[in-house]
Amino acid sequence: MINYKEKIADLIAPQVEGLEREEILGMIELPADSSMGDYAFPCFKLAKILRKAPPMIAKGIAEAIADDPMFEKVEQVNAYVNMFISKADFAGQVVTEVVTKDQNFGKSDMGQNRPVIVEYSSPNIAKPFHIGHIRSTVIGASIAKIYDYLGFDVIRINHLGDYGTQFGKMIVAYRHWGNEQDVIDSPIKTLLSYYTKFHVEAENDPSLEDEARATFTKLENGEKEETELWQWFRDESLKEFSRVYDMLGISYDSYAGESFYSDKMPRFVKELEEKGLMEEDEGAHIVRLDDYGLTPALITKSDGSTLYITRDIAAAVYRKETYDFYKNIYVVASQQNLHFQQWIQILELMGYEWARDCVHVPFGLVSLEDGTMSTREGRVVFLEDVLNGAVDKTREIIKEKNPDATPEAVEEVAKAVGIGAVVFNELSNYRIKDYVFSWDHVLNFEGETGPYVQYTHARACSVLRKAGDDIVAKAKAGFDPSYLTSESAHALSTLLYQLPDVIVEAGEKYEPSIVTRHIVDIAQAFNKFYHDEHILVDNEDEKLAKIAMVLAAKAAIRNGLDILCMKAPEKM
Ligand code: ARG
């Protein structure tokens, strides 16, 4: 995108001897008050070099550069050169760039294909995939998209919670009370009921706990029958998760979850030992982290079995060795802050100099109106139900509005808009904020919502259809930007101009909501432009310029929705 500061520095540099272009670039200011121009150049510093009064210098520079077409006017006010950018020149530069880049608008090569891992979703198998998981899933998917746009080579990982002593319990429960058909029919509900039953029964019969421990040891040792049962539980759970991922249009490069690291851990236990970082504590092994203000981390239990944190240490090293990542990003709830601080600190103590390239991106808690979610007490809202509910509601609205639409068209739009509404809602707030899940809120399509933005995109598409292919092709080939200087056109050009920087900022802050908000702003500015101006006017030159603007707005909104992992239907 055109960089005005650079262009201004190029113009001023020949006017001031004794000052490097780079220095001039650093001196250009953005006035807080727009009556002072879009850019200003202060001349105080030059007085010494040029042996002239600053206002005199400013006057000389202003006169020398005023004729450049990029300016509407250039003024000298005291020691300042105040520059007003030509709205026509600006709109011409911006709209041409967006229309030319089209699908690539907003992308950059900043990342230079360096590998970035984004780990997200990572649910626990045989446990409900509930509304709490939507956060990691959707925020992570969007961060991955942002890094795609920034030119990194993104590796998407689902670190499934598919290992641990609970699988000993599940296998024991299945053997005592289980039924194959029930698991096939409704895997997660059934497996969860086994897990719950196990805890109830174990209250009266503590020998069940011993049986579960022994069974988990067999699983750790890779014994056939236990491994097969575990594998089956995992496959059935994954089928359920995949239904939701398909609805969301999310995919992964790797499902290497906790179990994947089960045989990779002894190396690290040994390494911690050799580096003198581990100590024994009643048969268990811990790493003390008092010096860093953290509680001790438990590496192995007294029965020798490894823990969640040990698997994370193994996973990080494996990822470095396998992908040589530039960054390894974990989108995981803020409840796990301590866990991440601990293991990243441990990696650093072990001497892995890339430890701080592992970044925990936390997010706040989702609770329900009647309190926090509780799987045991049945207080849980399934993510799949939320997505289906949103699609159902959208289907009704669309049928009402378009009674003639074919069932296939209704279904396609209902999915895009219903699921999009949930995703957009999720990506609208700062990730770290806690929130209370409410059906009313998710299914409310009024105001600055996903459906509003998608509708704006469809409206732009409809204007282009009305204009016809011929006019659209001509507008793409060139237009007279002097028709794009109204207040509403200028506001829209300004927002389009900012989008690439907004994406960079969102990436640096791991904060998709920055993009969400900007896309809402673009949609609003487009709607204002659409209402304030006649687009399909008789004067062809004027029409071409305005159609180019519509093309640009459409491309920006579509790419923005793409970053939020949402579809952009052309008709609604
Ligand atoms: N499975 C875990 C949970 O549901 C989240 C895993 C987070 N990722 C990690 N590398 N520890 O709480």
Question: Can you put this structure into words, describing what you see?
Answer:
- 55% of the residues lie in helices and 9% in strands.
- With 572 residues, it is of the alpha/beta class.
- It has a four-stranded parallel beta sheet, sandwiched between helices. Strands 1-3-2 form a three-stranded antiparallel beta sheet. A three-stranded antiparallel beta sheet has the order 6-7-8.
- The radius of gyration is 29 Å and the shape is flat.
- Bound molecules: arginine.
- Arginine binds at residues 119, 122-124, 159, 161, 312, 330, 332.
What is bound: which ligands?
arginine
Please work out how many helical segments DSSP would assign: 22
Compute the average pLDDT.
94
Percent helix, as a range, is 55-70%
Give a quick rundown of the structure.
The chain has 572 residues and is of the alpha/beta class. The chain contains 22 helices and twelve strands. Helix 18 crosses helix 21 and helix 20 runs parallel beside helix 22 (540-563).
